[in-house]
Design goal:
By secondary structure, the chain is of the alpha/beta class. It is built from 17 helices and 18 strands. Strands 1, 2, 9, 10, 11, 12 and 18 form a 7-stranded mixed beta sheet that branches. It has a 7-stranded mixed beta sheet with strand order 7-6-14-15-16-13-17, with helices on both faces. The N and C termini lie close together (8 Å).
Length: 522
């Protein structure tokens, strides 16, 4: 007699990876439910209304990576309210001397901007993009498959074998370098180097880390797909995914915190909510952080050996904080901007490479950066729906900010001071910006951890270092999206290929779950 289940699949957590996995499973006809602990849907891709009509993202904001997947097209998310607004330029680097470098999807337009500081660097940048794009097309292809040796071999390795031996060797040597060194060797303009080094730092590893070159090499792909913002806020992506799931027979329930994953004889049997309710399913997908999944939700079932392995997964010591500002006006940068498009994308606010290195040095001391590098985000310049008429939103992300501070300093005692300092960075580049502040929502590392259940406030979940990427992410034995517990799968940013608004982990996980469900005999 077949076992009767409440659902085919239960998904824990409504972050975008979990919703992507749920959406595909619903598309394939599986009865699926998503349980979300918060009263809002979307996890770290969520927009909340604050301060009487301002729409504030409370997690990721700029959408770069998802455009390199088939997710939006496969699920026809435009039918569920998702409308992307191109960011052109997708980022700019203003400098105190009035110089500005702009990065457009169009490579020619970008090189034209770079030529304003260096003709030689304009040509060097074009060559850099053309050299790194073929490699990254292969890398991104491998991102949409489980990170097995054969998958990586068929995409990355075979594509590189077609190159001459000298080209292959040069490429392999460059991959093993730090992105700081790659940039230093490739370009001459201090302004361009400062912009690219700061951009490369966004995934977490500092510019000096060995084998981190890909954190700037992947930048070459942005010129293929560009970057964009969902109209109405970043959370419109997860809202569209929710609507897709519900229109295909699935359920998404907020205020439904999973307290425990119930295991018997090595098999997942059900999940238990904090209300005591239990729901059974043929499979469970956890979109929760890998440490939360194993150390908390599986606390009654995990072996001491696996517990020890999971505890050692490197989640770092945080690396950023963000302020979400309701504004009367947007920043007016002191630069020559005849196209008047500087505010259409991100603003990279780090005047020199040394400035960023100094910021990181403070972080290593266990202190917030004395002079933080920042990124300004002025999305209401292209999307007026984010603020009441005549007003705007300004988000400012800063690095480096340790989660655990030196000498046990509590974040609660310094969060306002550090927020003022971060807004002061924008003032340095756009004098008078802070005078137009209406109100703000501060997310210190402690706030980020609490809001999103991200241990150590690591927005990538697990450090994006070479030893925790591809088939090592988050551990070799967990890298295939399956687990030692039959019927339990993983879809969070702690899985291959990593963090960012990507959806690839959920996309890949859904296919693994589908194969499992097809093979099961009940």
């Amino acid at each position: 007699m077949k076992t009767q289940y409440n659902y085919d699949v239960i998904v824990i957590g409504s972050g975008h990876n979990g919703l992507v996995a749920a959406a595909y499973l619903c598309k394939w006809g599986y009865k699926t439910i998503v349980f979300e602990r918060r009263n809002t849907i979307g996890g770290a891709v969520c927009t909340e209304e604050m301060f009487n009509g301002f729409k504030m993202d409370v997690g990721g904001s700029a959408h770069f990576m998802i455009h390199h997947t088939p997710i939006v097209q496969d699920l026809e998310l435009y039918r569920y309210g998702l409308e992307y607004i191109p960011m052109e330029p997708f980022m700019s680097a203003p400098f105190p001397d009035g110089t500005v470098i702009k990065f457009y999807r169009d490579l020619d337009a970008t090189c034209e901007s770079i030529a304003s500081v260096s003709d030689a660097d304009a040509e060097a940048y074009r060559k850099f993009i053309n050299d790194w794009q073929p490699l990254n097309k292969s890398v991104f292809e491998s991102f949409l498959k489980p990170p097995t040796g054969s998958n990586i071999g068929r995409t990355f390795v075979l594509s590189q074998l077609r190159k001459s031996s000298s080209k292959r060797n040069e490429l392999l040597q460059n991959i093993m370098k730090s992105y700081g060194r790659i940039i230093e060797e490739t370009f001459e303009s201090e302004h361009l180097k400062a912009a690219l080094v700061w951009w490369g730092a966004q995934s977490g590893p500092p510019p000096i880390d060995t084998a981190s070159a890909e954190f700037i090499g992947w930048h070459s792909m942005i010129h293929l797909q560009g970057a964009a913002r969902p109209r109405g806020g970043s959370g419109m992506l997860t809202r569209a995914l929710q609507l897709y799931i519900e229109s295909h027979g699935g359920e998404v329930r907020s205020d439904s915190k999973v307290n425990r994953i119930v295991v018997s004889s090595g098999k997942v049997k059900s999940v238990e909510l904090d209300t005591g309710e239990r729901y059974t399913s043929r499979a469970v997908v956890s979109n929760a952080h890998v440490k939360v999944t194993f150390l908390d939700l599986l606390r009654d079932s995990i072996s001491s050996t696996l517990r020890n392995r999971v505890e050692k997964i490197n989640t770092g010591n945080g690396f950023g904080m963000v302020i979400r500002c309701a504004m009367h006006k947007l920043p007016e940068y002191s630069v020559n901007d005849p196209k008047n498009d500087l505010l259409n994308g991100l603003q990279l606010l780090s005047p020199t490479v040394q400035y960023l290195n100094d910021s990181y040095a403070d972080y290593l001391k266990g202190l917030p950066s004395e002079h933080p590098a920042a990124i300004g985000m002025t999305f209401s310049a292209i999307d007026p729906t984010l603020a009441p008429e005549g007003n705007h939103v300004l988000f400012v992300w800063g690095q480096y900010y340790p989660y655990r501070l030196r000498n046990g300093i509590p974040w609660e005692s310094i969060r306002e001071r550090e927020a003022q300092k971060l807004l002061g960075v924008v003032d340095r580049f756009a004098p008078g910006t802070s005078e137009h502040l209406i109100d703000w929502y501060i997310q210190s590392p402690v706030d980020i951890e609490k809001k999103h259940t991200m241990p150590n406030a690591n927005v990538m979940h697990v450090e994006m270092t070479l030893d925790q990427m591809f088939m090592f992410r988050p551990l070799p034995e967990l890298s295939s999206y399956s687990t030692p517990f039959k019927g339990l799968f993983l879809a969070s940013a702690g899985m291959h290929p990593g963090g960012g608004i990507f959806g690839a982990a959920g996309y890949n996980c859904s296919k693994v779950v589908r194969r499992f469900l097809r093979k099961r005999i009940f």
